Structures are given as structure tokens and as C-alpha cells.
Amino acid sequence: MQLEGLDYNTQREKLKLMAYGRDIQQMVERCIELPTKEQRQKCAETIISTMRRVVPSSQNQKERMPVLWYHLALMSDFKLDIDYPVEIEHEDKMAQKPGHIDYTNKRRMPIRHYGRLLFEMFEKLKEMPEGEERTALVNITAGQMYRSLVMWGMATADKEKVASDLARFTDGVIQISPDELKFETAAPVANRRKKKK
């Protein structure tokens, strides 16, 4: 509904970037209409300075300036004829969909709760010679396996399960008794609360 003599935001053209408000949008529109490139350039720099104050940011100056210049180009529908101090990608390029990302690791994990990194550790353990380094890595891996089981809410989160899975996923290379595993098992939540009291 258009009401003569009244100027409501609902009757105005939609803002390109609402964060900067209607005043800056109008400044950009006036800047486009300036007759000389020199005037437009000076006006654009003033608008950028105002935009910095209107929408403060924790970003440092070097990171923020390209964003502000791009926002200026966007608000002008890329019609502002000035020398931009940064490279501005045109709207057409932005509208293009990104290409398909090919996953580097397509191998399916037998058990998701251990995750890809633990399966990489199992592969590494298969190849390592016996010694202190392998023992240390076994304990680190076993500790992470236990934490993963606890985080995923597995009822079988204990040393026996970890020892069994270590043997299984290293193709029997790591055969270790549950008593030999050295990692801190988490106390049940109820016990921890009692200790705090």
C-alpha cells in the first residue's frame, strides 16, 4: 500500500546490506551519480571511513579493508566506477557454485566412534618395531580409544574392550593384556559429585 506524503521503510527499496543502514546506502547511490571519477573516488573513501565507524570490528585494519571495499561494491550493484584499492570479484563470479570436493580418504571406517585419526594410529602401530616408542604410542592410542568410547556413551568403555579392539584393528600386531594398559579411567559422574561435596 502506497501512502502519499508518508515515507515508510516498507515502501522503500530493500537494503543491500542492512548492517550499514539506509543512510550509507543513500550515500553510495549519490556517489554513483557524481560526474567525475576523482569526485567518486574521494566520496567512496569517505563512505568507507563512515562504514568503519558504523560497524566496528575486532579485525585488524589490514584484514578489514578488503571486506569494506567489497561491501561498498556490493551496495552499488558493482556500478561504482572508481579505482578500488583491492581486487573486487564481480557478482557473476560470486554466483558460481563451487566445484565438487573430492575426499582424500575414501576408505570406510569399520567403527566411526574411533575416528579417522585413530585408524591412522592403528596403521602406524602395525609398522613400528617393538620398543619404548611403540609402547608409549600404544598407551596414548589406548587412552584416546577409551575417551572415545566414553564420549560416545558406550557401556563397554573399559580396558578389556580397548585391549581387544587394539588387537583387532592392528591385525593382531598389538597383543596386550588389559592390566598392562596405562591410562586414567574416568570415574562415574555420580562419584565425582560426591567427592566435591
Task: Give the topology.
Blueprint: H1 21-33, H2 37-54, H3 61-75, H4 91-95, H5 115-127, H6 132-151, H7 159-169, H8 189-196
Helix pairs in contact: 1-2, 2-3, 5-6
Would you kindly provide a written description of the structure presented here, covering whatever features stand out?
The chain has 197 residues and is mostly helical. The chain has helices at 21-33, 37-54, 61-75, 91-95, 115-127, 132-151, 159-169, 189-196. α1 runs antiparallel to α2. The longest helix has 20 residues, at 132-151. The protein is elongated.
Observed structural traits:
197 residues
Number of helices: 8
Rg for CA atoms: 31 Å
Helix/strand order: HHHHHHHH
- Low-pLDDT runs: 189-193
Total strand count, please? 0
Mean pLDDT: 80
The portion of residues assigned to helices is 40-55%
Largest sheet: number of strands, sense, barrel closure: none
Query: Which descriptor suits the 3D outline?
Result: elongated
The percentage of residues in β strands lies in under 5%
Q: What class would the helix/strand composition place it in?
A: mainly alpha
| Termini gap | 66 Å
Concise overview:
The protein has 197 residues and is an all-alpha fold. It has helices at residues 21-33, 37-54, 61-75, 91-95, 115-127, 132-151, 159-169, 189-196.
